[in-house]
Each structure stands twice: as structure tokens, then as C-alpha cells.
Specification:
Keywords: Biological rhythms, Signal. One of its GO terms (cellular component) is extracellular space. The protein has five helices and seven strands. Helix 1 packs parallel to helix 4.
């Protein structure tokens, strides 16, 4: 449910490393020519080669990114009026470095990138503040949150464009679309019903039996906010290099 954020971060990592989007390109990043007839294969291999470095965030001695292990997420909110209100914060996710990229389609002329990301298993922990009122059932609590989500998939599409700056040609993301699918999740919320052990167990059982409610409610909002956030992040990174540095001939 919650750690879908890392899917988009991984997606951006894959595209940013397509040709190495930094003028001083670390030797650990494999460069893929835009004229390579097997460009998609080259990109996937380049990202796979980087997988251990992505986990720690240390691409080289001079260049670091936020680590994928663990991945820190921003606060996530859910609001269905009186029926359901929830806030999840201080989230840390383990397992995102096990990602797999497939079905990558690159249109270098139109600067369109379309691909799938699969994450077999993600473990997360953080804080929660929850209130549920459904029929005769009232569940409430504030405390520690932990859980696992499995078989996470995302379809990512980036539409880029060229622009001129200081007499040079650069590239930026014009639009980023994310479609997220999560097969199943298990959650453990401590201190439901102010720590009453019997009611807390019953509350967690209800939440896990109805986990689809949480997944379906969160997904659209996450897709929108992640698209906006990571579009801005990608453009901040990509403005550091020209088009030819990002996509060498």
C-alpha cells in the first residue's frame, strides 16, 4: 500500500541513467548510445549493473543519490469523510533494490519512455493515526505501523521535450504518468483501541481482511502526487546536462 513511492523513484533512476545525465559521468554508469539498435536492452543492463549502488545511494565517491535501502517516504493521507481517516508518517521501506524492469519501449525521436517495474516484496514501518467507522464498527488508534506488500507493479510513461538554454540544447520531462497495481498487503497497527489486546487483534484482522479498501483508496491519490513530485525531481536532475550528454550519439 504505502511504499509505492519507491516504484516511481526507481522509474526515474532508470531514465536518468539512460545515457548518464551528468556532465562528469561516473565510470560506474554504463552509457547507452541513442543510436544503439538494442537501446532498450542496453538501458535495462545499465540499470541492473547499478543495482548494488542504488541500494546504498553511493554511485561514486563524488556522486550520491538518496539510498533505496531503506527508502524514506513522505506522509500519506487518506480521507473518506466520516467513514475513514488515516495518516501514515515516518515511513521506511526495505526491499526496493530488488526491483525488476521489463517491457521497456524507447522512442528517442519523440523522447517517450514506457516501461514496467516489478517489486516482489516490500517491508515497511512507520507511524499511523487511524479512524474507521463502518456500520457498527469503530476502529481508532495512534501508534507504530509495520507490514508487507507483495507483487507490486507499476506502468510508467515519461514524455520529454527539448529546450534551449545558454545556446545549448537540454531535455526535460513534460509529463509523467504512473499506474500502480498492488496485489496484496498485510498490516500490523499497534495500540488500536488504546492498546486493548483483544480489540487490537480484532481491529487488525478487520483491516487485513479488507486491505483492498486501503489499497484502492490510496492508489489514485498516490499516482497523482507522485507524478507531480517526481516530474519536478527529474527535471532538476536533468537540467545539469545537455541533451547530447544525456543521450550520446
Amino acid at each position: 500500500m504505502l511504499p509505492t513511492t519507491n516504484l516511481v523513484w526507481i522509474a526515474l533512476t532508470a531514465i536518468v541513467y539512460l545515457g548518464g545525465s551528468f556532465a562528469a559521468l561516473p565510470s560506474s554508469i554504463k552509457v547507452c548510445s541513442r543510436n544503439d539498435p538494442e537501446l532498450s536492452r542496453c538501458v535495462i543492463e545499465a540499470v541492473n549493473d547499478l543495482r548494488p549502488r542504488l541500494a546504498t545511494g553511493k554511485i561514486s565517491d563524488q556522486f550520491q543519490i538518496p539510498p533505496l535501502e531503506p527508502l524514506a517516504l513522505a506522509t500519506v493521507n487518506m480521507d473518506r469523510g466520516a467513514e475513514l481517516k488515516a495518516t501514515f508518517s515516518e515511513l521506511l521501506v526495505s526491499g526496493p533494490s530488488k526491483f525488476k524492469i521489463d517491457n521497456l519501449k524507447v522512442n528517442i525521436e519523440k523522447l517517450i519512455f514506457d516501461f514496467n517495474i516489478f517489486l516482489p516484496k516490500l517491508s515497511f514501518k512507520g507511524k499511523y493515526d487511524l479512524k474507521i467507522k463502518l456500520l457498527l464498527l469503530n476502529i481508532a488508534g495512534v501508534g507504530d505501523l509495520s507490514g508487507v506488500i507483495e507483487n507490486n507493479q507499476a506502468r510508467v510513461k515519461l514524455l520529454c521535450e527539448k529546450y534551449a538554454k545558454d545556446g545549448k540544447e537540454y531535455v526535460r520531462v513534460k509529463k509523467l504518468v504512473v499506474r500502480i497495481q498492488i496485489e496484496k498487503g498485510r498490516f500490523d497497527m499497534k495500540d488500536l483501541f488504546r492498546g486493548d489486546p483483544v480489540l487490537s487483534q480484532a481491529g487488525n484482522q478487520f483491516i487485513n481482511e479488507n486491505s483492498r479498501l486501503f489499497l484502492d483508496e490510496l492508489t489514485p491519490g498516490l499516482e497523482r502526487s507522485l507524478s507531480d513530485t517526481f516530474k519536478a525531481t527529474a527535471n532538476e536532475i536533468m537540467q545539469q546536462a545537455t541533451f547530447d550528454e544525456i543521450f550520446p550519439a
